[in-house]
DNA sequence: AAAACGGGGGC
DNA sequence: GCCCCAGTTTT
């Protein structure tokens, strides 16, 4: 383990530290746990939905989505039966849309193979789409009271600082080793609360970058990172690679007040979501009009809508926009403003253009 | 093991 | 405006 989790803590000191943490941590959690909707009634379904939403996403961002989602789709069966457009609309703005598609795959599998209810068995959970080691551990421990670790970024940060470990937490083997460490520290009672307490500590006290609030930390007295003052630059992560740039011309094509939208391919970036007409490269008005004509559109007037930039994890989109009023109906489907707002999911990458929809100038 | 996959918040 | 955050699947 020492080879993977680099710490200057002696094995005996490390065991001692791990044995000493659960009691103050759980006491602190009992005092300080935030009141959150999925904690009120932690059914397996609600825990699952919340855990998937919370992947890569902060609590504050999830809050407006959770109640709406579980009200619209109250159980596994309802989720399995939902149309994809409704799913994407419920998820619009949360990002990582494969999460909700996998959730539906998972719901269908649960309906087919587990009697319509999420299984309580960790290994069975792990086999389901969209459920990896973290989510399986979270559901098994929080909803079913079983003793499994749920190692997210918060837990990695807390543990790395607690034992003053500078191993690269992005490495799979390091995550695995921290999972084993967490399990060794986990009490046999309240495993779900123990996991949630670790994450809560990372989210509210043991903060990234900005100074951790060590004076308020229930583990402050036993924290090796704090004692050594190494916690400021922990956890360690390997540097990330550069994003690639993409240039697009975004055309809001309009005919008789309705807007042309195209559905993106089912798989890949923003799969299945709707977008305005997109042409590769930054096109001048002249060139844009030419390409639209070549694609069979009868453009009456073309007006600039300004530039926009959107940054994904791995790509930067630089966009130039145009409003194209057509003089004849296009082949592809048109949508009213109301349909776009109420039913269709348009990625927030296009927010600069979507925002202008209600105030667009009338056709000349 | 590395890349694909969004969007929001802090400074 | 730039930097940081981070589970699961696919390659």
Automatic annotation (TrEMBL):
Entry keyword annotation includes DNA repair: yes
HhH-GPD domain sequence ranges: 53-204
GO biological process, any: mismatch repair
Cofactor: [4Fe-4S] cluster
Leading EC class: hydrolase
Cofactor annotation comment: Binds 1 [4Fe-4S] cluster.
PROSITE patterns on file: ENDONUCLEASE_III_2 (PS01155)
UniProt keyword list: 4Fe-4S, DNA damage, DNA repair, Glycosidase, Hydrolase, Iron, Iron-sulfur, Metal-binding
UniProt xrefs under Gene3D superfamilies: Helix-hairpin-Helix base-excision DNA repair enzymes (C-terminal), Hypothetical protein, domain 2, Nucleoside Triphosphate Pyrophosphohydrolase
Catalytic activity: Hydrolyzes free adenine bases from 7,8-dihydro-8-oxoguanine:adenine mismatched double-stranded DNA, leaving an apurinic site
UniProt GO MF annotations: 4 iron, 4 sulfur cluster binding; 8-oxo-7,8-dihydroguanine DNA N-glycosylase activity; adenine/guanine mispair binding; metal ion binding; oxidized purine DNA binding; purine-specific mismatch base pair DNA N-glycosylase activity
E.C. code: 3.2.2.31
Family affiliation: Belongs to the Nth/MutY family.
Role of this protein: Adenine glycosylase active on G-A mispairs. MutY also corrects error-prone DNA synthesis past GO lesions which are due to the oxidatively damaged form of guanine: 7,8-dihydro-8-oxoguanine (8-oxo-dGTP).
Protein name: Adenine DNA glycosylase
Lineage: Bacteria, Bacillati, Bacillota, Clostridia, Eubacteriales
Gene designation per UniProt: mutY
């Amino acid at each position: 383990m020492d080879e993977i989790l680099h710490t200057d803590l002696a094995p005996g000191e490390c065991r001692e530290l791990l044995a000493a943490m659960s009691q103050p941590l759980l006491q602190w959690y009992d005092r300080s746990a935030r009141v959150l909707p999925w904690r009120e009634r932690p059914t397996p379904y609600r825990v699952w939905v919340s855990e998937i939403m919370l992947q890569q996403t902060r609590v504050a961002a999830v809050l407006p989505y959770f109640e709406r989602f579980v009200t619209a789709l109250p159980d596994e069966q309802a989720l399995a039966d939902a149309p994809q457009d409704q799913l994407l609309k419920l998820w619009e703005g949360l990002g990582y849309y494969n999460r909700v598609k996998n959730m539906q795959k998972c719901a269908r599998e649960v309906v087919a193979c587990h009697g319509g209810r999420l299984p309580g068995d960790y290994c069975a959970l792990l086999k389901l789409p969209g459920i990896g080691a973290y989510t399986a551990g979270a559901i098994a421990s929080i909803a079913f009271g079983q003793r499994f670790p749920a190692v997210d970024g918060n837990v990695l940060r807390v543990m790395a600082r607690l034992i003053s470990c500078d191993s690269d937490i992005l490495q799979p083997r390091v995550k695995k080793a921290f999972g084993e460490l967490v399990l060794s520290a986990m009490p046999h009672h309240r495993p779900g609360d123990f996991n949630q307490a670790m994450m809560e500590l990372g989210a509210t006290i043991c903060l990234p970058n900005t100074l951790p609030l060590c004076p308020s930390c229930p583990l402050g007295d036993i924290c090796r990172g704090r004692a050594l003052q190494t916690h400021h630059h922990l956890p360690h992560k390997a540097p990330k690679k550069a994003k690639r740039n993409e240039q697009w011309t975004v055309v809001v094509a309009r005919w008789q007040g309705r807007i042309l939208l195209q559905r993106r391919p089912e798989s890949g970036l923003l799969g299945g979501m709707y977008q305005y007409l997109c042409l590769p490269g930054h096109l001048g008005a002249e060139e844009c009009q030419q390409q639209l004509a070549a694609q069979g559109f009868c453009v009456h007037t073309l007006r600039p809508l300004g530039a926009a930039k959107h940054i994904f994890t791995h790509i930067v989109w630089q966009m130039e926009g145009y409003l194209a009023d057509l003089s004849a109906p296009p082949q592809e489907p048109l949508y009213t403003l109301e349909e776009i707002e109420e039913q269709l999911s348009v990625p927030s990458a296009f927010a600069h253009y979507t925002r202008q929809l209600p105030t667009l100038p009338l056709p000349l």
